[in-house]
What we know:
This protein has one helix and seven strands, in the order H-E-E-E-E-E-E-E. With 136 residues, the chain is an alpha+beta fold. The chain has a domain at 43-133: Immunoglobulin-like (Sandwich). The relative contact order is 0.21.
Amino acid sequence: MKKYINIAFAFSILSLTWVSCFKEDLPVDEDGLLITTRAECAVTNFELLGSDFVTVRTVAAVIDTVAQKVAVTVQFGTDLKNVYPQFTLSQDAKLDPKITGKMDFSDLANPKVFTVVSGNRQVRKPYTVNITVQPK
């Protein structure tokens, strides 16, 4: 019986070693993110948070995936120099430029543009974020 346990154990170790030798190298991009076959790239949700990490939106953002625009209305008095944008993207997509912290959206005449890049890194769509401040 002990002989069979030793053989089974040896076979298990040999199998694990063999499988690890054939590890598939998955492609990754410069950010260390997996490159997939998905070509979809769209903004599916947008949030804008104040410095206290509470939403400053008055209603849900309007996202037009055809015109590639995001329209959001914020509360009167919002400090647009210190807000945190949060994008939800289609699966495996990424955003360029990356958001690393708070951003300045105070220049309402010049909306910010973010590019959504597909999972296969082949499709790039620029999205313009237009902010409107709610009147008093």
